Automatic annotation (TrEMBL):
Gene, per the UniProt record: LOC118403932
GO cellular component assignments: cytosol
Top-level lineage group: Eukaryota
Tagged with keyword Transferase: no
Name of this chain's protein: 1-deoxyxylulose-5-phosphate synthase YajO-like
Keyword list, A-Z: Oxidoreductase
Domain NADP-dependent oxidoreductase, residue spans: 19-334
GO molecular function, one term: oxidoreductase activity
SUPFAM superfamilies per record: NAD(P)-linked oxidoreductase
Keyword Oxidoreductase listed: yes
Family per record: Belongs to the aldo/keto reductase family. Aldo/keto reductase 2 subfamily.
Family annotation (InterPro entries): AKR, AKR_Detox_Biosynth, NAD(P)_OxRdtase_dom_sf, NADP_OxRdtase_dom
Pfam families, per database record: Aldo_ket_red (PF00248)
Amino acid sequence: MADKTEYRFLGGSGLKVSNICLGTMTFGEMGGWPGQCDEAASHAILDRYAELGGNFLDTADIYAMGKSEEYIGSWLEKQQREKFIVASKVRFNTSRWTQDINRWGLSRHHIMHSIDDSLRRLRTDYLDLYQIHLWDEAVPIEETLSALNDLVRAGKVRYLGASNVKGWQLQKIVDLSKYMGLNKWISFQAEYSLVCRGIEWELTDVCRREGIGIIPWSPLKGGLLTGKFKREAAAPEGSRIAHSTKTGHTFEAAPDFEKAKKDDKTWNVLDVMKKVAEAHGKTVAQVAIRWLLQKDVVSSVIIGAKTLQQLEDNMGASTGWEITEEQMAELDTVSQMDAFYPYNMINFANNDRVRKNMCQ
């Protein structure tokens, strides 16, 4: 399968993953969102992903209130478990009993309950990667670090990672782990795309210097970067963006299309993406994913698929072609965010002080 999928080490670890990770938030019913997959459709997508050489599955206990993990579990028990890298997350409340006030956050109590629930749903004895889903201001990070490290020592978890944290928070995790003699965290999962580059202000620097692999989510911004949306038309029916715009339930992976229509920068980015896609005989979506794959801090890009066709198209970004240096530079320039204080001042003062190799 090496000709279909490229494999990379996840951060500074010895764990190899396919550079396209299958995100499974589309598995299971989820609050009326369109295009969610039932168990049969989920298994069909998993089957094809594996046939194409994919080995990296990302889920979370909160996805479809546990259904995503359950669908993966019923598929996984029919596979050779050791061939797949399974990642899940902890932070949110999946209990139907809302009065259970301790089933939230990153306390030792919640973590210990959540890992057992996830393992049961996934029908496995261990998780390859366990990630905090979001920072928790209410819990001392030392408590979280210690609890997660105990899961590694108990064999329930192989590696640890973070998702949706700030730069100082990730650096604190790194430094405290060293100080406390705990296992190193190997990955950072964050929204990252040609129209969402905020992590480049600090988080990519932390990851690059500390050997943490970035796993971008929403590389297509909910479909906005597929080239299927037209500025002068309504969002395509059945899309998440159409649903979120109509209901007002917008979030990072499903932005308000009426606002997006007014953003000249987004459409300028899409114009360049279309030009690059035509030059390579690829789709606009493949260009969006490939741009991320050619960033040195990215280990694997998370894709979501509601259909086999979407899966096939996204997997086409994995290997066999590259965006040229000139095209990468053009994409970088058109999508560049305006610098603001203190980053503009710091970057200006360090323009001629950057080492090509941090070890020099």
